[in-house]
Design brief:
The chain has 401 residues and is an alpha+beta fold. The protein folds into four domains: 97 residues, conserved putative lor/sdh protein from methanococcus maripaludis s2 fold (Beta Barrel), CATH 2.40.420.20; 108 residues, Elongation Factor Tu (Ef-tu), domain 3, CATH 2.40.30; 55 residues, RNA polymerase II/Efflux pump adaptor protein, barrel-sandwich hybrid domain (OB fold (Dihydrolipoamide Acetyltransferase, E2P)), CATH 2.40.50; 73 residues, Helix Hairpins (Orthogonal Bundle), CATH 1.10.287. The protein is 27% helix and 33% strand. Strands 2, 4, 7, 9, 10, 11, 12, 13, 17 and 18 form a ten-stranded antiparallel β-sheet that branches. Strands 1, 14, 15, 16, 19, 20 and 21 form a seven-stranded mixed β-sheet that branches. Strands 6-5-3-8 form a four-stranded antiparallel β-sheet, with no helix packed on it. β17 and β18 form a beta hairpin. The radius of gyration is 44 Å and the shape is elongated. Belongs to the membrane fusion protein (MFP) (TC 8.A.1) family. This is Efflux RND transporter periplasmic adaptor subunit. Pfam families: Beta-barrel_RND (PF25944), BSH_RND (PF25917), HH_MFP_RND (PF25876), RND-MFP_C (PF25967). It is found in: Cell envelope.
Amino acid sequence: MTRSKILLPIMLSLALASCSDQGKGAGQAGAGAPARPPSPVSVLIMKKTEQPLTTVLSGRAEAFQSADIRPRVGGIIKQIAIKEGSFVKAGDLLYKIDDDTYRAAFAESQAALEKAEVSVPAAEANLQRYERLANTGATQKDYETARTTLLQAQASVAQAKATLQTAQINMQLTEVRAPFDGVTSATNFSVGNVVTASQTNSLMTLRQIDPIYIRLNESSVNLLRLQKAIANGKLQTKDADAKTDIRLQLEDGSDYPQIGKLDMSEMAVSTTTGTVSIRTLFDNPKNLILPGMYVRATITVGKETGYTIPQRAAGRNANGDLTAKFVTAENKVETRTFRSSQISGNNWLVTDGINDGDRLILDGFQWITDNATVNPIPADVDAKGFVIPKPAPDTTQAPKS
């Protein structure tokens, strides 16, 4: 019992001494550890330049022309001359309606015209005879009767000609032809079906897609801002005769090679969406754009002088204002807020809050806090938004000869 009382204080003393030595060693190791180097970040040197001011709008493709093809005469469809979904030229045969009855009506009209024409010479000769006998006892009544007979014969000829022309038109209308160049839809009728003149159901639909319309929708609020900027002289617009630069991006993200032009703009705001409809026109020689296709259009509306912030280097705060991080002269990180910004291609264009030579952080800013020390590395941004490091300056000197 006495031995245990003696050993217990000794063991506690040894344990405390061991802990003291370990703490001291850890403190010495921490004091001797090297400081963490500043994080490298890519920075873009800012410079004020004149940049195009753009707006990006979504829209849908619409056919340049569209026609529901209907027969103008009735009958049985005898032939479908086109392949569904094919391209046709103006005047190409689409459908052939059986024309037997129309040919018979044409022949009957021809005979009626010939019969009417035969009576005209006899009526003319009879009138001339009464004119010669006017002073030899022929009555005025006989003369007027002969004159009326001639006029009736001439009217019968004119009527027969009109009937013949109608019969000829009806016979020609049995061939349903394309009114313009375009692509055909699926046919709604087959060979043997009976159709009637100007029926409700169309035979097919023909659409012209070269050129093609792109209908865009712009917010009325944005239009008011644009008009205000022009009125205040902040926005340099193009000449009135200059072609508006409109470029498209297709559904798969690829750029459409053709440049479009403004065709018309609705002079009224939709009461349901608050937007203004803008129609643009694009050449479509390879038929890449089809009616109903969704596209995004970038329209250059003017120019403005300012600083461009790539979209990859920007963010938004809780109020929706544009934010970006910069490196100060002491290589410290600071966040700047821009209450006014506009779109310029793939960048944001701002006019204040930046000076020439300021360094904008391009990447990694999401994980860097303000006042953190960083190692800025100059870089550029290509047209697609990728960061391209600038080559380090060559500090080597050529050996002297």
